[in-house]
# Entry
Amino acid sequence: MKKMIYSFAALLLLAACNSNSSKLNQLQMENDSLVAASTQTKAEFDELLSTLNEVEDGFSQIKDAENYLTVQAQATNDLTPSTKEKLVNDMQLIQQTLQNNREQIAKLQKQYDNSRYQSAEMKKTIARLTQEIETKSEMIASLQQELSRKDVKIAELSQSLTELAGTVDQLSEETKTQQKELAAQEKEINTAYYVFGTKGELKEQGIVSGGGLFESTKVLKGNFNKDYFTKVDVRTLKEVQLFAKKAKMLSNMPSGSYSFVKDDKGELTLVINDAKSFWSLSKYLVIQVD
# Structure
């Protein structure tokens, strides 16, 4: 009889070891995946910066020409033939540079949309550059009207400027739409769910199962009631009051990223110490309380 009991215990121990080994392998695979994603994100970020620098360089190149055009448009004296020729050349330079920048910003927006790197500051920068193109396009149209009074004919640019203005308006609308989509995407990425309850309550909702004498408790297996969870933003959730004196973490949250803190009544509150680590393995938090 004793031999049978010992054999049965050995089988249980072997099953537990195999289970732990499987979990370790899974965690290692997830870690490798995160490392690969980080490497890809860095490469995408470097590409974004490269394109951004090209756009900024383009705006720097037209600064002197823009200033010269403004001064001449505001001047009261008549323009010499050489001055008129320089004005035409500078106007062409600005128009060509703005067109190139428009194309580069469209490229930058596409790179950003397809990148893992999502940043509110980068979105603001793209919107700012788009607005700058629109502002400078309006400035060129205004300067052209001023210079036309001084017999500086730049008619060949009129059609291009009209087309550029239309393209800028279209790009501005597309940017607004993309910003809304990115905001929704960012909100979804930072959405998580939590629930706490007694073992009986969690079982009733299908959130946990098993947990018998020789069966380990299974969490979030099968069709559990998602409506029973509370939806939260991981960026703002710092703690969860549990209104119980005993609590057990059932979901796979990294140890060290959280702690249970007692108040003066002995009731526990879950405190999230490291949100990024805490939600890295699961967006569903399950706590059993007694």
About this structure: The first strand starts at residue 191 and ends at 197. Confidence is low (pLDDT under 50) at residues 32-38. Residues 140 and 177 are 27 Å apart (CA to CA). Helices lie at 2-61, 63-74, 81-113, 120-148, 158-189, 199-204, 275-278.
